[in-house]
Amino acid sequence: MGILDALNQYPWLLATALLIFGLVVGSFLNVVIYRIPAMIERDERAYCTELLQPGTAAEPAEPFNLAQPNSRCPHCGHAIKPWENIPVISYIFLRGRCSNCGEGISLRYPAIELLSGMLAVVLGWHYDAVGLALLGGLIFTWSLIALTMIDIDHMLLPDDITLPLVWLGIFFNIFGTYVPLLDAVIGAMAGYLSLWSVYWLFKLATGKEGMGYGDFKLLAALGAWLGWQTLPMIILLSSLVGAILGVLLMFLHRRGKDIPIPFGPYLAIAGWIAFVWGNDIMRWYWSNMGASGAA
Questions:
Q1: Four-point Cα dihedral 179, 172, 175, 6, nearest 10
Q2: At what angle do helices 108-127 and 11-52 cross, to 10 degrees?
Q3: Assuming Cys at both sites, which of 17, 58, 110, 254 could form a disulfide with 91, CB separation 3.0 to 4.6 Å?
Q4: Residues 84/101, Cβ–Cβ less than 8 Å
Q5: pTM score over 0.85
């Protein structure tokens, strides 16, 4: 019996493998969430320096990307050893503190690892087999986690993630994995243009920017994965999620109503809900509409 056969035959084995793999990916997502905005900032600073001071010889910078340098404690610079970087387990054994300086480690790191692993298990339960749909679902899910956290931290949805996500959605749907290819292409176009139109209408009416261009690209990506028919559901769900979380944030942190709140996380949460349970939601809606109409 091969590994894939065993995973497909024993659901508990598939769930365990997905949990472990998701925890490991979650550890990498923590690196992505921290470093991609820093990489963008470094590139923009270098570009501005070259633009304002052409011909200035830039000092060779230390490599900084998703692979280099090795992870370090932000307080004391202690290089994280491999055994100190085991997802969740290391955090527990270190009691949430750096082994060198004793400063606290943010609870967010193991939380993202756990979220990554748990959502992978949910996808395994949803698809019930190893295949193209599960692979795409994992990529889709982990990308949304990274985008959500980056947008919360920096109000930024990096093109380095959103644009590949658009093309990956179209790629997976070449095979009709989630929706027909035509629906995916129209979904990408409609997703972008719908928020683009709202942006410009709002700006012309108020003189203010209600959202960023990254939101257009994220909705385009969701349309590419789920098709144009799902876009109204995603927009409605994101508004509902935004209303609930916005009220909670204002209540818990006493944030003023004029403080900007990123829209990307709401789109990401709504998109993931639609990705996993969209068909069930639509069936429930139309069955209730049919019952209401019959009455």
A1: -110
A2: 130
A3: 110
A4: no
A5: yes
Distance CA 274, CA 288 (A): 18
Residue 40's Cα: distance from chain center in Å? Answer: 18
The whole-angstrom separation of Cα 264 and Cα 39 is 20
List, in sequence order, every residue forming a beta bridge with 97; answer none if it has no partner: 104
Give the chain's length.
295
Angle between helix 181-206 and helix 213-226 axes, rounded to 10 deg: 160
Q: What 3-state DSSP class applies to 256? A: coil
Those residues with Cβ within 8 angstroms of residue 48's Cβ, 6 or more apart along the chain or in another chain: none
Residue 254 has pLDDT above 70, yes or no: no
User: Which residue bears the tokens 């998703």?
Assistant: 66
pLDDT tens figures, 176-201: 999 999 999 999 999 999 999 988 88
Among 114, 115, 173, 172, CA closest to 139: 172
The confidence score (pLDDT) of residue 43 equals 84
Q: Which has more pLDDT, 290 or 18?
A: 18
> In this structure, how many other beta carbons lie within 10 angstroms of the beta carbon of residue 198?
15
Query: Cα-flanking dihedrals φ and ψ of residue 220, to 5°?
Result: -60, -40
Q: What DSSP state is assigned to residue 97? A: B
* Cα 213 to Cα 192: distance, rounded to the nearest angstrom: 9
Nearest to 263 by CA among 229, 222, 226: 222
The angle subtended at Cα 227 by Cα 146 and Cα 112, nearest 5°, is: 15
- Residue at 174: amino acid letter: I
DSSP 8-state assignment for residue 4? H
CA distance 129 to 113: 23
